[in-house]
Design a protein that fits this description.
Layout lengths: L4 H11 L15 H8 L7 H5 L28 E17 L2 E20 L9 E12 L2 E9 L5 H7 L3 H5 L4 E4 L6 E5 L6 E25 L2 E23 L21 E27 L3 E8 L3 E16 L4 E15 L3 E10 L2 E11 L4 E3 L4 H14 L2 E7 L1
Antiparallel strand pairs: 1-2, 2-3, 3-7, 4-7, 5-6, 7-8, 8-9, 9-10, 9-11, 10-13, 11-12, 12-15, 13-14, 14-16
C-alpha cells in the first residue's frame, strides 16, 4: 500500500474509476459510476446473514421479496421483521513512512418489512403478499494519510503532465509554445516533488429499496412469485488533498510563473472535490420454487435491469498560496443528469433440510458488460462510455453457501 497509495489518490481525485483522457472528462460520468450502482448489495436480516445470503429457496420472510419472491408462498403466518445495523469502518493507511488511522461509524435501520398470507392455515394452496423497506448497500468509507514525499512526484506534476487546467489556473503550471511555429507543446511546471502530502476522503450514502411482492402455490409444491422494487439512494464523496512546502524547498527566489513575482515562495496547494448524487430507479424480480420430499427445495430467480436516474452536482474548489500573500483560487460547480441500466441477474439455488440442519447453495450469473449509460448524455459521449464498459468489465459467477 505504501507504493500504491499516491496512485490511488490520482484515481480518486481525477478519474473516479475512469481513464485519463483529458481534463474535461474529470467532470463527466465514468464507467466506475455504473459499477457503483450495479453491484448487488446484501440483505441484513439475521437469518439471511447467517446463511450467507444464500437462503433463496426456504425464506418465508420479507427478505424473500429481494431474493426469490416465490418463497413468500411458504408463509402461513403474518410476520414482521426488522434489523438495525451498526457499521464500523476502520482504515489504517500507510503512506511513505507514516501511518494514519481513521474510523467511520454509522447506525441505520437496515430493514422493516411485513408478510401477509391471503388464505387460512388450513387451505391447500397458499398465497401471500409482502411490503417493506430494505437498505442493501452502504457507501460509507474513510481514508486519511499524511507524510513528507521526498521523491520527484506530486499531484501538481501529475496534473501538469496531462495538461490539466487545475494547476494552470492556480498558477502552478504554464503553457509552453514552440518559439518558431508558436505551436502549443504542453504544460510545464517548476515543481520536482519534495512536498508534504495530506489527504482526507470521506464517502457516505447507500441504496434503499421500497418493495412489494406477491407469491402463490399455483400447483402442489410449485410456487411462483414476483416483486417490484423502487430504489432510492444517495452518494456523497468529499475528498481533500493538500501539498505544502514544509521544508522550504521552494525559496523566495523561485517563481512558479517566471514573469510573475507574486508566485514566488510557494507555500501550499489545496483541492476539495465533492461529488453529490441523488438517484432513484426501479426493477422487477421473478422467481419459481419447487419443493419435494418435504425437505428438498430447488428454485431460480431473475432480476431485470435496474433503470437508475442520477442527478449529480460536482463541486470543486482549489487554492494555491504563496509567501507573497498572494493566492489563486478555483470554485466550480458542474451539474450532470444521466441514466444507468444495470445488467440482468440470473440465480439458481437449492436447499436440503435434514432434521435441524439446513444447507443451502446458490449460483448467480451477472454479465457486467451489459451495463449501459443513457438519458441526457449526448450520443457520442454515451456511446464512448458503453464501449469502455464492454472493454473493461466481464461476466461473473457468484457462489454462495450456507
Amino acid at each position: 500500500m505504501k507504493k500504491n497509495l499516491f496512485a490511488l489518490l490520482i484515481f480518486i481525485f481525477l478519474l473516479n474509476a475512469g481513464s485519463i483522457v483529458n481534463a474535461q472528462d474529470y467532470f463527466k460520468p465514468n464507467i466506475g459510476d455504473a459499477l457503483r450502482v450495479s453491484i448487488s448489495g446484501q440483505i441484513y436480516d439475521a437469518r439471511t446473514l447467517s446463511m450467507g445470503n444464500s437462503n433463496t429457496v426456504f425464506n418465508d420472510t420479507y427478505s424473500a421479496t429481494l431474493l426469490n419472491p416465490a418463497t413468500l408462498g411458504l408463509a402461513r403466518k403474518f410476520t414482521v421483521n426488522t434489523s438495525v445495523g451498526a457499521n464500523l469502518y476502520n482504515n489504517d493507511a500507510n503512506f511513505i513512512n507514516d501511518s494514519t488511522f481513521s474510523r467511520r461509524t454509522e447506525t441505520v435501520l437496515n430493514q422493516l418489512g411485513i408478510v401477509i398470507p391471503l388464505v387460512s392455515d388450513s387451505a391447500s394452496n397458499n398465497f401471500a403478499i409482502s411490503l417493506g423497506y430494505n437498505r442493501s448497500k452502504d457507501f460509507n468509507k474513510i481514508l486519511k494519510f499524511s507524510a513528507y514525499n521526498a521523491s520527484n512526484s506530486s499531484l501538481i506534476q501529475d496534473l501538469t503532465s496531462i495538461n490539466n487546467f487545475i494547476p494552470r489556473e492556480l498558477l502552478l503550471s504554464y503553457p509552453e509554445f514552440d518559439p518558431g511555429s508558436n505551436e502549443y507543446l504542453g504544460d510545464r511546471t517548476i515543481f520536482n516533488g519534495n512536498l508534504n502530502q495530506e489527504g482526507y476522503v470521506l464517502e457516505e450514502g447507500g441504496i434503499n429499496h421500497w418493495s412489494f411482492g406477491i407469491a402463490g402455490e399455483l400447483a402442489s409444491n410449485i410456487f411462483f412469485g414476483a416483486s417490484f422494487n423502487y430504489n432510492v439512494g444517495s452518494y456523497l464523496r468529499d475528498g481533500e488533498f493538500t501539498e505544502s512546502d514544509t521544508r522550504d524547498s521552494y525559496a523566495d527566489t523561485i517563481q512558479t510563473i517566471g514573469n510573475d513575482p507574486l508566485t514566488a515562495a510557494f507555500q501550499s496547494f489545496y483541492i476539495n472535490d465533492i461529488k453529490d448524487w441523488v438517484f432513484n430507479g426501479y426493477d422487477l424480480r421473478i422467481g419459481v420454487l419447487y419443493k419435494f420430499f418435504n425437505f428438498i427445495g430447488i428454485g431460480g430467480a431473475v432480476k431485470t435491469p435496474s433503470i437508475i436516474s442520477i442527478t449529480e452536482n460536482h463541486y470543486f474548489r482549489g487554492k494555491s498560496q504563496f509567501a507573497t500573500s498572494f493566492s489563486a483560487q478555483i470554485d466550480t460547480v458542474i451539474a450532470n443528469k444521466f441514466t444507468i441500466q444495470s445488467p440482468y441477474e440470473f440465480s439458481v439455488a437449492a436447499d436440503v433440510n435434514l432434521w435441524f440442519i439446513t444447507g443451502t447453495a446458490e449460483v448467480t450469473y451477472i454479465d457486467y458488460t451489459q451495463m449501459k449509460f443513457s438519458g441526457d448524455l449526448e450520443v457520442p459521449e454515451q456511446s464512448a462510455l458503453n464501449k469502455k464498459i464492454i472493454d473493461a468489465y466481464t461476466q461473473t459467477v457468484n457462489l454462495k453457501i450456507g
